[in-house]
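Memo to structure team: turn this sequence into structure tokens by end of day. - J.P.
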Amino acid sequence: MDETPRPRGRAHAIRAAARSHVAVVLLFAATWWVLTGGASHSWLVGVPAIAAATWWSVCHAEGPGRLPRPFALARFAFYFLGESFRSGTYVAGLAVRPGARPTPHFVCFALSLPAGPARWTFLNTVSLLPGTLSAVIVGDALMVHRISTGPHEDADLRECEGRVARLYGLRVAGDGGVQRDA
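Reply from structure team:
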């Protein structure tokens, strides 16, 4: 019996793209609803604005992992909020704790995510990890500024990169490569 995986058809690709587009529309609609306080009369402007923003984001997305996956976006939101809170309390603790001695330094982190939206999401999220800031990208490496050292400096970065990869339907391979999720 042949165990070779069959390539997915065009219909599968169309369904996947449609799901991603629906997720983008829902994200923009939720954002509009929050920004306007749910005012029903605002939808006269909101619907065209959401349509234009969706069209622009779809047309300008590049490469694999162009749009986030809807359910993964919800999981990522909890991670994002948790890390934001943890980061704020960590830095505040350093500021008010007597005798706290930050040891600022830079580390070079090899990026596994492809260029495009997934990588940009990762770069922006890194700055919300406790005591970190994305400083500069050089090729496929990210210089990260840290305010303290730890035994596993890359562990939080690898975890964050893996979560962003899942958000975009990618898998970060152990050798630093990225694979598209089936």
